[in-house]
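Dear colleague,

Thank you for sharing your sequence with our group. We've completed the structure prediction you requested, and as agreed, I am returning the results in plain text so they can be pasted directly into your records. Please verify that the sequence below matches your submission; if there's any discrepancy, let me know and we will rerun it promptly.
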Amino acid sequence: MSAEDVALTLELAEDSMKKAINHLEVELTKIRAGKANPQMLDGIMVDYYGSPTAINQVGNISVMDARTISIQPWEKNMLQPIERAIIASNIGINPQNDGVLIRLFLPPLTEERRKDLVKRSQGEGEHAKVAIRNIRRDAIESIKKAQKNGLSEDAAKDAENDVQELTNRFIALVDKHLASKEKDIMAV
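Please find the predicted structure tokens below.
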């Protein structure tokens, strides 16, 4: 294994860590922080004539005010399936169907609910950290294997240090995202 292979290992590790951060960002947007956000509905699938379809593919989602989201279905007969999908998704909001559109009123968060949301955010952060540490482990194993196949000890040590620096950088990024989300959630 050559220096190029080590560089490739580092590059692959960094790409994978970036994906872990992107996943964390997506998961954190789904956790509501008191303000209405259409992304809270990402991942909710509606039964569209027998096939599961993303909610934003069957209607127009818009934020009416800080605590209200409206969903205007493109077809009237989709009101019921959208309503059922929101209830089944367990996001903790009851949809209000007025026969034309569906409104989601976000209740103000209680202190207890805020703490639960912070815990959920931290859980997502922990998943991201575990993913990053697993990527670090795989990269270091790859470097150790390379060392057995002729990579110099110094080069292997340098590469392992680079992997650790990368890991530290991405773990710090996870912590930064979590701190920001916690601040959002706890802001009254």
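Summary note from our side: Strands lie at 45-48, 51-54, 59-65, 68-73, 95-97, 102-105.

Kind regards,
the structure core
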